[in-house]
User: Fold this.
Amino acid sequence: MSVTIFISCLLVITVAGGEVLPDEFQRQFDVMIMAKFDQLEAKVRDQEIQLKTARDEILSLKTKVQQLEPVLEENAKTKSRSVDGNPIVAHKAMAATSSALFVPRTCHEARESGLPEFKESGMYWIDPDGLKIGDGAIYVYCNMTTGATSVGHDSEATIDIPKCSPAGCYSRPIVYNGGSLKQMKALAEISADCHQTIQVNCLGGPFTVKGIDYAWWTDVSDNKQNFWSGSDESDHTCQCGIENNCVRSDLECNCDANVAVPLSDNGNITLKGVLPVTKLNFGQINHNGGSHTLGKFTCSGKPTYAFYPSSCADLWRIGYTLNGLYPVRGSKRVEFIYCDFSLGQNVQQETIGYADVKTQAVEFYVQRSDEYSSTTPSVIPFNVKILNEGGAMDMVSGIFTVPKTGTYLFDFSGISNPVDGVFSVVFNVNDEKKASTLADDPGQFTMNLPSIWHLAKGDTVKLTITSGILYSDDKNGPLVHFTGILLEEDIFEP
Ligand SMILES: *[C@@H]1O[C@H](CO)[C@@H](O)[C@H](O)[C@H]1NC(C)=O
Ligand SMILES: *[C@@H]1O[C@H](CO)[C@@H](O)[C@H](O)[C@H]1NC(C)=O
Assistant:
């Protein structure tokens, strides 16, 4: 509209002027007109883009509405039934509404859900490594009769293998729909079985002869493989090798015959831990006419869990994806672990430990091999180290510094040798007397001082003697013993 108005205006000016405009004025006028036109053109382009965006938005909304329709229908049905006051029906309605947000991890899961929107076989979005964590969802084919998930790729059609000479000279990377190998790995991990079929037509061009690989495929972990069928990674073979019907009985693959006649091999790779195929390499090809056809990566079922989960990875396989503290099976009892699922199956795990699964062990056992005497109260130092796990015991000063808050068990034993009446060994926490043992008869007595304390990180523990002699000698072996062990760690230190 504005274009028309502007042009008619221009005409009016030209006509009304009636005479030739001065050159300079004409030039400036042209520049101005051109600038105006550019502006208008930009505006029109802008409008076009906006229109297209709006159209796309409408299309996308239409699709969404179509997807929601069955859900809403179900919702309406259950709601009308809930008029008779059945509370279970009301729950059902809520579940149907929330199902609109349900993105299954596999087609198996979609089928198991029994939701109406997953009835028909077809293309669906799934998220094997977990919704809202790991990599984005992938678009796959679901066979809803079998519950099988098939991931397509860019090399499903038959592709010619050109002539080329060194081993592996022809190379074809396989690009999966969605592109995420992490999602493929996740899919395999949470499925019972996976397989991928391959067919190769050859006119010469052996796979593996006398242990030399001329052809191979690359697995999901970037390893070269030369088994073309079955699940035995260590065995170069094709389907004819497994069935013992290759063209030459001494070979495992027809193509290994390496003759200039058309032959073919096929295989069904079923080792799910190495699938899918990520690259194909062929070589030593002296004739045109060869080709390869690689099937979709297909997985079905779900693994059986005949065990209690013992790690965050187990929990992820079962389907947990919310970060948090979970109880799992430990070596001796149920333990708690903190799971961070934000990386999908590469879940981060932190053990919150008790007695046998401490995040870091703290234990010491030190001795004195000679007698220690003092005329004033003083800290007992030690000179024999049996154990000092965690390094918290300083033998020279005789001071144990608590490395982490928790409950500790200590034990002391030694032989008294009172000089003038009373001899006492005192257990101190932060210079404060907490416990003691005492001998007040002349002669030698065994003194014991076991105790359990809840201590905070940074607290110090030491044994002091009053005046007297703590007896020990090398001949009878060290007779003064001091041990300590962290029994139970405080999970949440303030
Ligand atoms: C589903 O899989 C079964 C078994 O492989 C097959 O017979 C059937 O044709 C498949 N259905 C569809 C719709 O792909
Ligand atoms: C490949 O193996 C899988 C699993 O054993 C099986 O379900 C599938 O039918 C096989 N496909 C072919 C073409 O043999």
Notes: The chain has four domains: 21-101, 151-300, 312-354, 363-489. Residues 121, 143, 145-146 surround 2-acetamido-2-deoxy-beta-D-glucopyranose (ligand 1) (CB under 6 Å).
